[in-house]
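Student: I would love a firmer grasp of how sequence relates to backbone shape in proteins. I am handing you a single protein, as its sequence and its fold in token form. I am told such tokens are a discrete way to write the fold. I hope you can help me see how the letters and the tokens relate. Take your time, and here it is.
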Amino acid sequence: MATKGVKNIFLSASIPLPSRDAKYIETADIIAIRDAVIALTTVVLPQHRIVWGGHPSITPLIYYVMEKLDINIQDHVKLYQSLWFKDSFPQDNNKFENIVFTKKEDSISASIKLLREQMLSENDFSAAVFIGGMDGIEDEYKMFREYHPEAILLPIASTGAATKIIYDNFIPENFKNTRLEKDYGYMSLFQKFLMDKI
């Protein structure tokens, strides 16, 4: 449970890899993905909590903002990591105090599924933000909707990749807005569509 006044925001994000499915990399805007993660972290962390699955392309960006903010907000971040990846955890993991390690299962897919189930079931979320990403973002979107049907959904379609696919095909109409497709002023966008609503 979040402490009084502090809301949990789920972040589903990654930078697509060229070696993976071309449908993600061909629309991905790598600079926009980085800018959006940095803006989200800057806007959210002083007041609320970000919970994410520890993708190695995202964790360093979140820590970068924490250093810039220069305030002790370790309890405003919660990072989940599967022990399947124990030998390849990013160095930045060591900079976070609130890490939840989930069990290593018989396969990588089962281990990631367990991580997502645990992450989404043991936290109350007010909103989910989707940025860039690959098939994992699509999986997390579907699971998040099951666990938290009342939460705000914020797919930043301008970052492309899996988030654009979700926005175009799966997001309910009431969560769509042209600013999510075309506005790269992410600080004001998160203030208006997230902070002013939770």
